[in-house]
Amino acid sequence: MLIRAGLIAGLVLAGLSYPFTALAGMGVKAGTEALENMPEQLTETPPAQTSYVYAADGKTLLTMFYEEHRKHTDLDDMSPYLVKAIVASEDTRFYEHNGVDPKGVARAFVANQQAGGVSQGASTLTMQYVRMALRDSAKTPTEALKATEQTATRKLREMRLAIEVEQRLSKDEILERYLNAAYFGHRAYGIFAASQVFFSKAPRDLTLTEAALLAGLVKAPSAYDPATNDRGAALDRRNYVIDQMRKMNTITAEQAATALKSRIRLKLSTPPNDCVSVAEKHNDWGFFCDYFKSWWREQPAFGSNPQEREAQLRRGGYRVVTSMDPEIQRYALRHVLEKEGRGSPFAHGQVVVQPGTGRVLSMAVNRNYSLDQEDNGRHTDRRKDGEKGNYPNTVNPLLGGGDMAGYQAGSTFKIFTLLAALESGLPLSTSFYAPQRFVSQYITAPGPATCGIYWCPKNSSESMTGTQTMWSGFGKSVNTYFVQLEQRVGADKAVRMAERLGLRWRTAVDKELATKEHAPGWGAFTLGVSDATPVEMANVFATLAAEGRYCEPLPVLSIRNPDGTHAVHQERLVAAPRCHQAVKANVARAATDAARCVTGYGAARGHCGWGTSSLVYGVMQRPVAGKSGTTDGNKTAWFSGYTPQLAASAFVADPDNPEHLVGSGRSTMSKYTVAQTLRDALQDQPQLKFTPPSDNLAW
User: Fold this and answer.
1) 537 CB-side CA count, 13 A
2) β-strands 549-551, 556-560: how paired?
3) Fewer CB atoms near the end CB (10 Å): N or C, the chain?
4) Using omega within 30 degrees of 0 as the cis cutoff, is the peptide bond preceding 392 cis?
C-alpha cells in the first residue's frame, strides 16, 4: 500500500502542470481510487487512413477519400531532420525518461505556481502519443472529450499509460506512431499528409528548415500556421525549433545559422477528396468515380449498410485500382463531345464494358462533374420556368448507378425478345409476315386505344412490310415482326430475360408491369418503353460478346488493405469478376448472328437484307454486332455495339425533360460515337471473329 501510495503521490505531483489548486484536494486516497479505476494498458485502434483510388494503370490517381487525410509512413521513410526536430520541439529529454519526465514536471510546477495558472505543460512525447491514441480510439463524443479534457484524472491516466507504453515499445516505435498521429493543421493528420499539404513532397525529402517548421506546428497548428498572410509566428516557432536542435547538438552551429536566415518557402497543395475533387483537366472522370462510389456502398464486405461502407472507404486506407482505362476514356469523351457539346441540354453519353469480366472501362458524357450550377442553362421543362437545368454542370448519375431510372431504350429491347425466342427453341429462320400495322393480342395501356381495345404497333417504314426472319427482322428493326415473335414466346419471357441480363426496374410503372401478374400482357416491352441505364445496356451486349456469360458490372481491378492484402468477403476477392452463364452459348451466338445484320457486317448463317446501322461496320471495318433504338417521336436515340473484346452503349436524351425530343437529326449520333470509340480502342488489337451458331438454332 505504501508503494502504491508513493506511486500515486509521484503521479499526482507529475500532474501539477495544472493549477495547484486543481489537485490540492485530490490527495493520495483519491488519487489511489482514481488510479485503480484506470486501464493498465493502452488500447490502440489503428487511426483512420486515406483511401487512394487509381485508374486501371495503377498509377494515375483519380481521387482520394478521407475524413482525416493520413497515410502511415515508416520511420525509415522520414527525413532524419524530422525526428531530431520533433524531439527538440516537444521533448528534449525523450531518450532519458521512461514516459514521464520528473524534471519537466518540476519545471512546469514552478512555472505554473508563479503564473497562477497553466503557463507550461509537462507532457512528454509518449504522453502526447497516449492522448492521441485515446482520441483516435474513442467510440463516442464523451470518450473523445475525456481524452483531451483539462483534468488531473486525464493527466494521471496519460502518465500511467505512458509508462506502460515505454515498457512495451521502443523509442523509435513511439516516435513513428507519434509522427503518424499528430495533427499539423489543414486537415493533415500525420507527417505524410503534412509533407504533402505544405511542401508537396514525401516525408523523406524534407529539408532541415521544412522539418523544423512542421515540428513546430504540432504545439498549436492554428497559431503557427505558415499558410496565413502573417508568417511571423510560424517563423519564430520554426527558428525556436532550429535553435533547440543546435543546443542538443543534433545539428551544427553552421547548419543552424544558415537555416535561421532562410525564408519560409511553401508549396501548398490541397489533396483531392471525393469525386467532386477529381482534377479539373480530367473532370470527366468524376462520373466514373461516382459510379465506383455507388458500387462501393452496395458491397457487404465493407459494412452492414451504405453509410457504414462509405465511412469505411473514408477511413480504411485502401488502395483501389479501378477498371477505368484512361486511354479508352479519352477516345470515348472525344467522340461524345464531337457530336454534342457540353452546352447542350441533350445529354450524350457512352459506357464501355469488357466482355467476360463485366469491368467498366469508360464512362463519358457531355457534362462537367460539378456541384456549381450557377451558370447552367435554363430548364427545358416549361413548367419549371426560371429554374436552371442540369447542363453543363451536374453530379447526377447520368450513365448508371445511384437512383436515376435511366432512359427509354427503344428497339434495343428487341434483343430480349430475340433471346427468349431462341432459348425456347425457335430458330433464326422463324418467319412471320410483318404488315405495316399489326393488331396485337395485347390490351392497350390506359389511354386512347390504337385500334379498338388492342395495342396496334406499326413499323417506322413501309419498306419493312413483308415476310421477315429473325435475321432481317432484327437487322431492319421491324416492330410488327417482333410483336408477333413476342406473342409466340410470351412477353413475360422477354421481361424475365432482361432481368437475367441485369436490368432493374426503378420507376413505379416499370415495377408494376414487370410483376408476375402483369408481365404477360406487357406487349410494348419489346419496343423499349421501359427505362434502362447505359451501364446496364452495355453489359447486356457484353454478355452476348462473352457467349452468354453474364458478369455483374464491376468498376474495380483490385482492392488492397493498408497491409497490402486483398480485400476479401466470404473467402472471395471483392474485386473479382462475378460471372455465371446466363444463357447458353449457342443461344448467344445465334443472337449475335442476327445482331451482325444491324451493323452491316452481315450474318454468318442467314440473309439480312439491309441494316439500320450499316455505317458502324463502315467505320470499324472489323467484326461487329449491335442494335440501335429510338423511341416514339425520337425522345431518345441509342446504339449498343460489340466485338468479342469490347462492348459499348451510347444514348442521346434530355434527362431533365423526357418529352424534349432529340429529333431525327440526332438519330445516328450514338451509332457513330460507339463505332468510332470501339475502332480507336481496338486499333492495336487483333480482329477476332464471332463464332456462328449451330444448325439447330439457324434453321
Assistant:
1) 35
2) unpaired
3) N
4) yes
